[in-house]
Design a protein that fits this description.
- The complex is a heterodimer of chains A (about 350) and B (about 500).
- With about 350 residues, chain A is an alpha/beta fold.
- Chain A has helices spanning about 25-45, 60-75, 95-110, 120-125, 125-135, 140-160, 170-180, 185-190, 215-225, 240-255, 260-270, 295-305, 320-325, 330-340; strands spanning about 15, 25, 50-55, 80-90, 115-120, 160-165, 205, 270, 280-285, 290.
- Chain A folds into two domains: about 45-270, HUPs (Rossmann fold); about 280-340, no CATH class.
- In chain A, the strands form three sheets. Chain A has a five-stranded parallel beta sheet. In chain A, strands 1-2 form a two-stranded antiparallel sheet. A two-stranded antiparallel sheet of chain A has the order 9-10.
- In chain A, helix 2 crosses helix 9 (about 215-225), helix 7 (about 170-180) crosses helix 10 (about 240-255) and helix 7 packs across helix 11 (about 260-270).
- With about 500 residues, chain B is of the alpha/beta class.
- In chain B, about 40% of the residues lie in helices and about 5% in strands.
- Chain B has 17 helices and nine strands.
- In chain B, the strands form two sheets. Chain B has a six-stranded mixed beta sheet, sandwiched between helices.
- The relative contact order of chain B is 0.11.
- The chains are: A alpha/beta (about 350), B alpha/beta (about 500).
- The interface between A and B is large, with 71 and 83 residues.
- Strand 8 (about 270) of chain A pairs antiparallel with strand 9 of chain B, so a sheet runs across the interface.
- Chain A: This is Cytoplasmic tRNA 2-thiolation protein 1.
- Chain A: It comes from Oreochromis niloticus (Nile tilapia).
Chain lengths: ~350, ~500
């Protein structure tokens, strides 16, 4: 017996929604999906009319769907936004250069301007070279820190007022779980915010319009809309700690599908006791980027790479900031500790 | 290495494998008997000192238990609570230096009906535990879980919390106690009470209630709630003002992650903190929260602490049977690879506080009907809660399609008036709502309006538990009658809201 769509009750249902279990036809699903994102944008007041917005595009499913939906909603509801695509080339052969082709295709399909920034031109290091020095264990730290700055620099070059990223509900839930497992109270408080603070002049605020969209629904949307994207895992990611949180979250979802939203709800309602030490925002003395220490993490990591001390930046490193700033060499003991690399 | 900002200095070397000739790291004389954490080898006596000292330190540091106070120990028969019992016993004995100064009682809940044990099995277990309790000499209460069906509604009525007692009150109380020489408060050994066997009908009703819950996760949550209610009620009627629970550090780390996965982020501090004052007059205390399960197991083994193995609802189930089971296996496996996992999670829990404390005056917050924590379902935009309501509305109900996009959300996510058809689609689990030929709502309108009304009285995660129940009519009478009372009261309030001058709450 064919199942009717639970929303319009007219057409035959072709899919079951992972978020709620409702059976929907194609059009109702598209509409529901887009409408939820629209309501997220409206209720969180993410954009102002006339603003120029950079869409962080990696060529993967989240950013492809994000670009598509932003274009659709911009026209349907007259947000009045000027959309642009911004992409980061980390220099991972076999992975990034393929996904960049997808981004270039997106640019032509949606007729949006595109800017690509690369680690090579910004820092002088590609991820391949970094992994050769650092090994396979802590390389995600380097990539993540560098990418954040790269996005900001790209946004300033493009002169956009805001960046939006394709982080979905699964990502936010994983981050909450990961921060609990690592005991990072400061990040735990901030990670469920839908957009970052926009007071600081040098930093472009960023937001997550897909915050409440399940990853599986994003794939369903892309599948039925026949959107093309690049879908391989980064070749360097298998050893990341985030993998544990991700496996746990996937298992949770199979036990109870609403778990992802439940975790986000928990994260939003956490409150930290008074008197717990929190980092204070300042600026990096070398590059001027925001930082809670004397040197920003990217500068410390770069310093480590350039001096051949890959472990500088992983673990407690604020002791070395003064030495780095004043260009002093480190003692032999310190050098030995920081050079050790485990594959 | 999983903890942020962890210092690698000195930890990169391999820990030396302890051998028979290794000495205790504390007294450096006696040979080591066991290893806790990497590299810390202790001899028997030093370990005992360490263990006993921690118990006294945690009670002394928090200064919550006043001398001469009556404290009820909730013992489940498992290793943690039996270890706690032994610590209390030893701490109270005359020869201990700095002996503890409160009056204990023991409560054990017999949950045999929930796991489907026969009457003989239940009696056997109870007899074993009775022997253990009698050896301690404290008064004890064996409570079959069926008693939860007869609880009065006052258990879930919100009590005003007692005023915060200043630190000076503690010192004054200690001084007073020392003067009057409180040794005459030692509990007299009691006549063993004849255990009242629950009526077969009551066991059947309880099983019906648990049978109406469709998922194991919700069943475990419901059992937790009922258990706590029963303990609190017993404490009240027998005159105890504190309740001691035997949760270990490992158990609490698992509970923290489980609570986050169930949507209990706002109530984390109360669920896993040292003291929990949600019931007002009875305060729940967790003195074993600094001990890992491993330390407790070592102590019990070395000093022969008796404990009884009792199955629970999730014994011998697969990993993915329930969220609680899944989290337990996840944390245990992660702990094997990263030994600091449990302690890191535990430290995170210490830094949290209950969300209601942000506002001054705890009475102002409405309380959840089941778990009695403050409600976290205030629909502020934007939030995950609002997003879930929206999803139910959009994909569950009919006639919101098409060009009239502006009118699609008449009530932006207010919980009191969700579209009824939307709600009943979600409460039916969203399966197969489109029956051929149905054009008005998807389901018949007689489908459980009770569930909808009950949900407005519950916090986010208790609402999820109720959603997994096929019917709420099997809930114990005290819960249903309190729900109706609160609904009547809020209806009254709505009628006269324009005439009320003060927005203050005279008590719900």
């Amino acid at each position: 017996m064919p199942v009717q769509c639970s929303s319009c009750s007219e057409k035959r249902a072709v899919l079951k929604r992972p978020k709620t279990g409702h059976s929907l036809c194609k059009e109702c699903f598209f509409w529901t999906f887009e409408e939820e994102i629209h309501q997220t944008i409206v209720s969180a007041k993410l954009f102002k009319p006339g603003e120029s917005v950079g869409i962080a595009a990696s060529g993967g499913k989240d950013s492809t769907v994000l670009a598509h939906v932003m274009k659709v909603l911009n026209e349907r509801y007259n947000y009045g936004l000027e959309l642009m695509l911004l992409s980061v080339d980390e220099g991972i052969t076999g992975y990034r250069d393929d996904s960049l082709e997808t981004v270039k295709r997106n640019q032509q399909q949606y007729e949006l301007p595109l800017k690509i920034v690369s680690y090579e031109e910004l820092y002088g290091w590609t991820m391949d070279a970094i992994v050769k020095q650092v090994g396979l264990k802590n390389n995600c730290t380097f990539c993540g820190v560098f990418r954040r700055q790269a996005l900001d620099r790209g946004a300033i070059m493009l002169k956009v007022g805001k960046i939006c990223t394709g982080h979905n509900a699964d990502d936010v839930a994983e981050t909450v779980l990961m921060n609990v497992l690592r005991g990072d109270i400061a990040r735990l408080r901030r990670c469920t915010a839908i957009s970052t603070d926009s007071e600081n002049e040098g930093v472009v605020p960023r937001c997550k319009p897909l915050k409440y969209a399940y990853e599986k629904e994003i794939v369903l949307y892309a599948y039925f809309k026949k959107l093309d994207y690049f879908s391989t895992e980064c070749i360097y990611s298998p050893n990341a700690y985030r993998g544990y949180a991700r496996t746990y979250l996937k298992d949770l979802e199979s036990v109870r599908p609403s778990s992802i939203m439940d975790v986000i709800h928990s994260g939003e309602n956490l409150s930290v006791r008074e008197g717990v030490k929190m980092p204070v925002q300042g600026t990096c003395s070398r590059c001027g980027y925001i930082s809670s220490q004397k040197l920003c993490k990217a500068c410390v990591l770069l310093e480590g790479l350039n001096r051949g001390l890959p472990k500088l930046g992983i673990g407690k490193h604020h002791r070395f900031h003064d030495k780095i700033l004043s260009q002093q060499p480190l003692t032999e003991e310190e050098e030995r500790k920081l050079k050790a690399v485990d594959f | 290495m999983c903890q942020v900002d962890e210092d690698y200095r000195g930890e990169v070397e391999r820990a030396a494998v302890p051998s028979v000739s290794k000495k205790c790291v504390k007294c450096k004389e006696a040979p080591a008997a066991l290893v806790i954490r990497a590299g810390d080898a202790y001899c028997r006596l030093c370990f005992k000192d360490f263990f006993v000292h921690k118990f006294k330190a945690v009670l002394g540091k928090n200064r919550i238990i006043f001398p001469g106070e009556k404290v009820l120990l909730a013992v489940s028969g498992g290793p943690s609570s039996c270890s706690m019992l032994r610590q209390v016993q030893e701490g109270l004995s005359q020869k201990a230096n700095k002996k503890l100064r409160f009056v204990p009682g023991i409560a054990y809940i017999d949950e045999g009906a929930a796991i489907g044990q026969s009457v003989e099995e239940r009696q056997r277990t109870v007899a074993e535990l009775q022997a253990v309790f009698q050896a301690t000499g404290f008064p004890f209460y064996i409570l079959p879980l069926e008693q939860v069906l007869d609880l009065p509604a006052s258990v879930v009525a919100t009590n005003p919390s007692p005023s915060e007692q200043p630190a000076s009150a503690y010192k004054a109380a200690v001084g007073h106690f020392v003067e009057t020489d409180g040794s005459n408060n030692f509990p007299t050994p009691q006549e063993p009470k004849k255990m009242l066997l629950p009526h077969v009908q009551e066991s059947h009703t309880l099983q019906q209630l648990l049978g109406s819950v469709k998922t194991l996760t919700a069943r475990e949550e419901l059992l937790n709630t009922l258990r706590q209610h029963l303990l609190v009620h017993t404490a009240r009627t027998e005159g105890y003002s504190k309740l001691m629970l035997g949760d270990s550090c490992t158990r609490l780390a698992v509970k923290l992650l489980t609570s986050i996965s169930l949507g209990r982020g706002a109530q984390l501090a109360q669920d896993t903190g040292f003291s929990d004052s949600r019931y007002g007059d009875i305060i729940l205390v967790r003195p074993m929260r600094d001990y890992s399960a491993k330390e407790i197991a070592y102590y019990n083994h070395l000093f022969t602490v008796p404990s009884v193995v009792i199955p629970s609802v999730d014994t011998k189930t697969v990993d993915k049977a329930s969220i609680q089971r899944l989290t337990e296996s996840f944390v245990t496996k992660l702990q094997a690879d990263f030994p600091s996992t449990v302690s890191t999670i535990y430290r995170t829990s210490e830094k949290l506080q209950s969300a209601c404390m942000k506002w001054s005056g705890a009475e102002r917050c409405d309380r959840c009907l089941l778990c009695l924590c403050s409600l976290d379902t205030a629909v502020e935009e934007p939030s995950a809660f609002q997003a879930t309501l929206l999803s139910d509305q959009l994909s569950g109900s009919k006639c919101l399609r098409g060009s009239a996009a502006e009118t699609l959300r008449p009530n932006p996510g207010r919980p009191e008036s969700p579209a009824p058809t939307g709600q009943c689609c979600s409460s039916a689990g969203g399966r197969d709502c489109g029956r051929p030929g149905s054009d008005g709502g998807c389901c018949s309108s007689a489908k459980l309006p009770e569930t909808t009304r009950l949900k407005s009285l519950l916090c986010y995660s208790c609402a999820l538990t109720i959603r997994d129940m096929s019917t709420v009519n099997h809930l114990p009478q005290y819960i249903l009658s309190e729900a109706q009372r609160r609904q009547r009261r809020s209806q009254m309030r709505e009628e006269i809201s324009e005439f009320l001058l003060d927005d203050g709450d005279e008590g719900n």
